[in-house]
Design goal:
The relative contact order is 0.15. The chain has a single domain (about 5-120), classed as CBS-domain. Helix content is about 40%, strand content about 15%. The protein is α+β, with helices and mostly antiparallel strands. Helix 2 (about 25-35) links the parallel strand 1 and strand 2.
Length: about 160
């Protein structure tokens, strides 16, 4: 399975902010939209990610006050990204290695979407559930002994005659 499969199911809604936006405004937008991250774009380039992790860290360092800070002051300036063609087998260790919950999906310089750790986990579970169903259906359709041919053969090679 590839990242493009997840994006196809999620739809194409993109949420971005500028690094010079007021942090309070960005937080309010995240709350209003019920999202956990904003992709930070400047002049058409990915320059950062703002997630609840950076916001909580800022609040902790400043005794609960965001003040007049800009997004640039708290964003992750070096976010990992992937492409639509990246396989989930590659994405999972990438996200785990840096405890990344949100990853921008880029096609060259174009933002295609954001996948979350939840999206990846759900895709893996859905894939395993589908495979499990297929295996159970295959086992359920296994020929029974009553389905053996009239001559006693079940289509398999006959057993060699017994010596004796």
């Amino acid at each position: 399975m590839k990242v493009s499969d997840i994006l196809r199911l999620k739809g194409g809604t993109l949420y971005t902010a500028s690094p010079d936006d007021n942090l309070q405004d960005a937080v309010e937008a995240m709350a209003r939209l019920d999202i956990g991250s904003l992709v930070i774009m400047e002049h058409g380039d990915l320059v950062g990610m703002l997630t609840f992790r950076e916001i909580i860290q800022c609040l902790a360092e400043n005794k609960g006050v965001l003040g007049t800070r800009t997004v640039r002051k708290v964003m992750d300036e070096f976010p990992m990204s992937c492409t639509p063609e990246t396989s989930l087998d590659q994405v999972r260790p990438m996200m785990l290695s840096r405890h990344t919950r949100y990853m921008p999906v880029m096609d060259n310089r174009m933002l295609m979407g954001v996948i979350s750790f939840y999206d990846v986990a759900k895709a893996v579970v859905d894939s395993q559930n589908f495979e499990n169903k297929m295996l159970k259906a295959y086992i359920r359709d296994w020929p029974k002994e009553d389905d053996v041919d009239a001559d006693g053969a079940d289509g398999a090679d006959p057993a060699p005659p017994a010596k004796g």
